[in-house]
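Now for one record:
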Amino acid sequence: MSSPLDEPGPLTEPRPFDRRATLGTLVVLDDDPTGTQTVTDLPIITRWEPDDVRWALDRGGPAFAVLTNTRSLDRAEARARTAEVVRSVLAAAGDDASRLRFVSRGDSTLRGHHVDEVETIVAELAGVAPVDAVVMVPAFPSAGRTTVDGVHLVREGDELVPAGRSSFAGDPTFGYSSSHLADWLEERSGGRITAADVTTIGLAVVRGPVRDLADALLAVRDGRHVAVDAETDDDLARLAEAGELAEAAGSNLLWRIGPGLLRPLVGQVARPALTASELAGRIAAAGPATPHGLVVVGSHVPLTTRQVERLHEQAGPSVEQVVVDVPALLRPDRRDAEVARVVAAAVSALGDRDVVVTTSRVRVDGHDGDDSLRIAREVSRALVDVTRAVEARARPSFVVGKGGITSSDLATEALGLRRAVVLGALLPGAVSVWLSADEEARERSADPPASRTPYAVFPGNVGTDDSLWAALSAFRAAAVKATG
């Protein structure tokens, strides 16, 4: 069968391209802030009022991200917020709305409101640019998440295990048992999507002629899902190029991806981590009162717990650990006193050492998924109160937020970031550093000024056991340069 794509020739190496000039701007709806870990110089808005959206559009880049933080919400709230964001973005774009292309960024370990968010975006775009295919690519090879023969795999320790048998599948809110993506969609949708209705594209097609892969995407219609295998970053680069060809040929694709595919979708190549000198300049500009920094850990996945333990093994007395008593936070009569205790301990210690604030490591689950989510939000609100107070009183050189809900709430509520830009990576492909770009917005707002402190977003589920220590060490070296 002949291809609708006319241009012959083999796939080239991944290369930058002006996606906005050819296909329009990518709008990345990020369900928590950890999706930016693979990219640089990406504008981010945490509110979606018309001025904020236009600010992001007017920067002229190939993409911008909207931090929706829907992973911290229940299903109904996630649907409502997703609809609100899409409507606001379309309205702000005006006559150019039909040229926007949407990316729904979710978790590479399959947690989150995938089905609800996708269904909502498809419905909102129906009258503007109807979606032909939902392209599902959760693979994040550099973090050990791959998809082969339709089965999503997660590296745990030295072993690749089917996602449905991983520790992430036991999430109290977003748990699942299926590892085959088509079956997972049927499970998580409650049967609204059947496995038989999901198209799967295997590695043989992904690694074959790029136009065959583009044709496979073009063949999917009526907003159905297509789950695509990917085992390497090269596979993701090929898929991004095939998607570009399919969209140029007239297909409207809605991408549902993990962090791995975002970089090739926006036409970026991998870049090295930020140097100590680059970070030092940003730290110095923020005017810290101490050369030490604050790390706030809310994530409870086993990898995070191991990373915290390893950090303290390696850092020894040069780091002060302050443990938040979660059961105390959940008692109204003890909550405020516990927050005050943690703030006082952190402020006192920051004068001569780095501080790591962690929640107590025994996870407190609710009686069902929604109740567990409520508990997570209560804990996150307390961490926001702690971080806001410590930032104001001690003015640390840097702040690290560890975990999806935690890092989102710290960015928006504790540090007051409304508009930000990804400066680059603290750890390549794993931890991104955000800087405030809020000056213009704050001039016209009653909100207090956003923090200028460099802020690192550290996902709960990525890296090795040594990665949290590596991130702290990188910031430490920069802070020493900045503060002399």
